[in-house]
Amino acid sequence: MDHQQTDRKQAEQQLAESKETIRNKLALLPDQSGCYLMKNSEGVIIYVGKAKVLKNRVRSYFNGSHNGKTQRLVSEIRDFEFIVTSSNMEALILECNLIKQYHPRYNVLLKDDKTFPYIKITNEKHPKLEVTRRIIKDKGKYFGPYPNAYAAQQTKKLLDRLYPLRKCKTLPDKVCLYYHLGQCIAPCEFDVQQSEYDRMIQEISRFLNGGQDVVKIELQRKMEEAAEKLEFERAKEFRDQLVAIDAVMEKQKITMQDALDRDIFGFAVDKGWMCVQILYMRQGKLIERHGTTFPYYGEAYDDFMTFVTQYYSDNPALPKQILLPLPPEHLPGETLEGSDEAASTHADDVIASLHNWLKVKVLMPQRGRKSEVVTMATDNAKVMLDEKFRLIERDEERSVKASESLAGWLGLEEVRRIEAFDNSNIQGTNPVSAMVVFTDGKPDRKEYRKYKVKTVIGPDDYETMREVIRRRYERVLKEELAAPDLIVVDGGKGQISAALDVLENELGLFIPVCGLVKDAKHKTAQLMTGDPAEIVPLPRDSQEFYLLQRIQDEVHRFAITFHREQRGKSMVESKLDSIPGIGEKRRKLLLKHFGSIKKIKEASVEDFRPLSIGEKLASQIIAALGEESS
Known about the structure:
This protein has 630 residues and is α+β, with helices and mostly antiparallel strands. The chain has 5 domains: 2-102, GIY-YIG endonuclease (3-Layer(aba) Sandwich), CATH 3.40.1440.10; 118-248, no CATH class; 262-387, Nucleotidyltransferase, domain 5 (2-Layer Sandwich), CATH 3.30.420; 411-569, Nucleotidyltransferase, domain 5, CATH 3.30.420; 578-629, DNA polymerase, domain 1 (Orthogonal Bundle). The chain is 47% helix and 17% strand. It has 17 helices and 19 strands. It has helices at 2-27, 54-60, 68-76, 88-102, 149-162, 177-180, 194-228, 232-248, 300-313, 345-358, 368-410, 461-478, 493-506, 543-577, 584-594, 597-602, 615-629; strands at 34-39, 45-51, 79-84, 118-121, 129-132, 141-143, 262-270, 273-282, 285-295, 321-323, 361-363, 417-424, 432-439, 442-443, 449-452, 486-490, 513-518, 524-529, 534-536. The strands form 4 sheets. Strands 12, 13, 14, 15, 16, 17, 18 and 19 form an 8-stranded mixed sheet that branches. It has a 5-stranded mixed sheet with strand order 9-8-7-10-11. The protein is elongated and about 115 Å long. The chain starts with a helix and ends with a helix. 30% of the residues are buried.
């Protein structure tokens, strides 16, 4: 029964901790677009979603009413994480990639093998533009992906107006309407030089790779020229094309059309801590991220590069390409020799050394799509590091505030140091007690103490409390240790009275004592204090009550663990006592000589000779302990 209660209590404690974790994270969500990943108690991702504003969307799961499916989902959520993106469109594509990667049980949409549309320039004698969802090795040029077919078709429609490649699947016998509209150069009737095709393909490629500004400048020039010639319809057409470019060319960088495996690094530093974010792109798709936070002690960029080196020394699965942020001394816009991916002499050295060591292409991009995904990794590192410090600050503020408020409830000036006690004597054997210390609402584990009860026989909780309080605070007086502002005991009036009697009447100490009373479900129910003890009407949903609950759970865990250790040792020691020829004196001698029961088990017959124990008795001891461990 005790194990069942302990397991139930641990489950309840874990649930309370997960709810507290979620509450803290909800308060720190950013006002940015991105994807969120909901996890269950085992850390398994059970749902992936996207949001234009992460803060609003994720909070909505934990506020208000929901339908049956969402209620089931929310009931299983124990934690969540999120990935910040720079646009809602990026979030959409990332959501698709994550769902295909993890197959969360609560996701229905985007779970099939549907792919996003791309714009393709065909590899033919007379090339044309088309929208496709299949990428094959046919030497065609692919650009995208686009969030939906409409966006891809609108972009193609714009390009058809700008660049008059052929539109028909097979060449007709004579020119068609597209030629008369100026949207086809009519290879069916006129000879078209390869150089003309090469020029258009180059301009289209530049446009789709983010170079639309050059095209816009040219359209602006043509619009002004047409207006000067009073060709207002022609000028309006150029103006409409300019507007169309801004409408359909929202850039995204979650997927790259070259289908390469990449690891993309970004990092951020603050207050002596570094956060490194790794974005994993597989087959051109961003599918996962990993973040780690640690203290650093040298130069930030050097320590970051050390991390990258160590990461790959422990991780033999290498991608085709590694993207790294520029070193801090790089000045934007400076002209460098060699590849424009390099940043400086320092960057060149880093790239060369990593490339030679890993045999993988390493880039530090300054511009373009690759630079944008590095920036995305860096932005996520900044968000994660900021989240860490805000959580720490909130925890410290909440704990300090709870301690201060608790003092008010008890009529004390302050409650900074709390010492809490719990006794454990299951089935009346091996009675022990434990003490934990909380300072400013946080556990101070180096101050924890364990006590073997010496003077009490049987399960007498009041006398056990008297002995342990006496031993603890006699030592406090003798060694002039710091006295607590508050003593917390596990129990009600009887335990409080026993503790106060020893403190005041025997030791002359006047330290406030309160008791935590449990209900029928073995949960913290009431706070009592004073002599005679009275109930303190502390709200059960308050931070002060939650602090006391954490303290009681912690001291109970510590006491139970110690008691089980002692019972285990006692069972083996009692086995020694049951061996003829082994009394209390010889048992103590054995333990002193060998140091532990484990060493006695592992000893040979010859090892017992220094203790004047013969071969027969030594064999009996080894056999008895061997049976115990089997």
